[in-house]
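so my prof wants the structure for this chain in the tokens format not the other one, which i didnt know existed until like an hour ago. anyway here's the sequence
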Amino acid sequence: MDDFTWDQRVGGIMFSGDTPVDMGPAKIGDEVRLRANGNEFDVVVEIETSGVEFSGTVVRIGPRPCTEADGVHRGDQVSFSEAHIFQIKRA
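here's what i got, hopefully its the right format
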């Protein structure tokens, strides 16, 4: 879904996991949180280009559990930029 409009982040990225406070940009294998129209989408990063453009698979949609929101389904491949990442989760 390359033409989907994600919310733009204002401010810093929130980090979570077994890592330092600022772990740098998202990497392949990280789970990132994107937002659109009040919904949250957790995506596992599978492709990264220069640390600013990414693609991955939607693994969770919230805030209340569902399998689809705004035409995006769990399991869909989506593209996004660093400016759309609200949270990075790294194990």
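also thought this was worth mentioning. The CA atoms of residues 39 and 62 lie 6 Å apart.
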